Amino acid sequence: MKIVNIVPGFGGTFYCGNCLRDSVYTRSLRDSGHEAITLPIYLPLSVFESDKQIDSPVFYGAVNIYLKQNFKLFRHMPAWMERFFNSSGILKYAAKKAGSTRATGLEDMTISMLLGKDGQQKEELQQLIDFLKNHEQPDVVHLSNALLIGMAEEIREQVGVPVVCSLQDEDVWIDGMHENRRKELWDLMSEKAKDVDAFIAVSGYFADVMKAKMNIPDEKINVIHIGVDPSIYQVNIPAINPPVVGYLSRLNKENGFEIFVDAFIVLKKQKGFEHIKAKASGGKTGDDLRFIKKQMKKLEHMGFEKDFEIDDHFVQEELHEFFRSVSILSVPVPNGEAFGLYQLESMASGIPTVQPAIAAFPEIAKTSGGGVVYEPNNPLALAEKWKEVISDPELLNNLSKNGRAAVEKKFNHILLIEKVVQVYQTVVTNKVITMSDENQASSQIANL
After folding, report:
1. In this predicted structure, which of 305-319, 388-402, 406-420, 427-441 has the lowest mean pLDDT?
2. Strands 35-41, 140-143: parallel, antiparallel or unpaired by DSSP?
3. For residue 4, what is the enclosing H or E element?
4. Using CA atoms, how far apart are residues 143 and 166, in angstroms rounded to an integer?
5. Distances (CA, A) of 423 to 289, 426, 431
6. What values do phi and psi take at 218, rounded to 5?
7. pLDDT band at 52 (very low <50, low <70, confident <90, very high)
8. Using an 8 Å Cβ cutoff, are 67 and 112 in contact?
9. Scanning 161, 176, 251, 327, which has the fewest C-beta atoms within 10 Å of its C-beta?
């Protein structure tokens, strides 16, 4: 089976769990014997190297579509100008700029993308369609998230193949937009959901969220957790001398970095925990610099800055060094997540997780046995849960072993990709049956 996985590029300048998950999808399909490619849109998947996951040009170049959406002057650019704005150097530069991943102010752009052939990006859509038809000729097209479903109608009609769409944290993007536009966006997404053959939610929690928000019927939605390749992770014994609390995600308020910093200050001030340290990795964008500086000021004020290490140059390939140096991992996202890939990367490395009891986090902790949850999601509660886990070597050891075992047996990428392929096979079969029925009906009409 040949699958094209269409994913939004993000430049690779920070830890993006959903983006990394998309890359794992393609590798896993190939490892399972299928022909699969990753087709990036907006931005490259990485600005640091010639990413081997990229098999095609970047479609819907971020600079081009931004200019066309906001300035009529650029809607009829000559071909040479489009090629310039879509060049690797320009896109890499755009990926590093502040605001390149910010939802605020992109309401009109998001709506236009959802409108598909009726939006401002109709030329880019047709370029993508032509590439799929003439170059790839896939059996299935898989959209990385529901914000891309404006493409589905034309893919199904012109390419003639079914479309599958993942559901993963779309609500975070929509809720980050102006409140007066959110209903309009959800209504449009609900309408466009009819053009998708099947949805795959990354957790049971998020399946329920999106069924309600997008009016997706039960028979159209499948719950398949995220998976990773356990063989690429080095198994560690959680560091306890001294204990080190770890954070792995983009260093911003939306991912709970402030809660993490404040919890560290709370615990370090307590008797018996003066020696505790912290390590944070995950990268940043220009938008995050002022926020990070503010957090460091807090640490400096308390005299704790030397015990709080921030890795300024996030590189995915060096994560084994990060996990080797920490005791537990916490990413206290204020509103939770649809899944959170960092949990699997941590457990695969033998490091337990301590997450807030919201969104999908309790589901993953219960299924894996490799983490614990706390509530409410504030610095005091997080510090108390850290204290509980760090003070119990037997608990820490059991969580470490359970987490690694769960990644091998329940969150193994090969096992989970088999479930994804079953969804593909079902929609392909249904497409063939539908086309056969339509051809039979047309033949009967012609014979009348």
Report:
1. 427-441
2. unpaired
3. strand 2-8
4. 6
5. 42, 5, 12
6. -55, -40
7. very low
8. no
9. 176
How many angstroms separate the Cα of 263 from the Cα of each of 243, 306, 380, 381?
14, 16, 6, 8
Domains of the chain: 2-227+425-431 (3.40.50.2000), 231-409 (3.40.50.2000)
- What residue type is assigned to position 337 of the chain? E
Name the nearest CA neighbour of 155 among 111, 117, 210, 200.
117
Report whether the peptide linkage leading into residue 57 is cis, meaning its omega lies within 30 degrees of zero.
no
Amino acid at 311: D
Q: Which residues are CB-neighbours of 223 under 8 A, at least 6 positions away?
A: 200, 201, 202, 203, 204, 207
Residue type, 45: L
Encoded tokens for 342: 């960092």
Amino acid letter, 192 = K
Residue 362 vs residues 155, 339, 353, 406, 421: alpha-carbon distances, Å: 37, 10, 11, 15, 27
Share of the chain above pLDDT 90, in %: 65
- From CA 277, how far away is CA 262, in angstroms rounded? 13
396 and 173 Cβ atoms separated by less than 8 Å: no
Cβ neighbours of 98 (radius 10 Å): 12
- At 5 the three-state DSSP class reads strand
* Residues found in the chain: 448
What is the rounded distance in angstroms from the CA atom of residue 60 to the CA atom of residue 126? Answer: 10
Pair type for strands 277-281 and 244-248: parallel
Residue 261: phi and psi, rounded to 5, are -60, -45
- CA-CA distance, 373 to 285, in Å (whole number)? 29
Q: For the residues of 137-193, what is the DSSP string, one character each? A: --SEEEESSGGGGGGHHHIIIII---EEEEESSHHHHHHTS-HHHHHHHHHHHHHHG
What are residue 330's phi and psi, to 5 degrees? Answer: -140, 130
Per-residue tokens: 32: 């399972």
Q: pLDDT for 311-346, tens place per residue?
A: 876 676 778 999 999 999 999 999 999 999 999 999
What is the pTM assigned to this prediction? 0.84
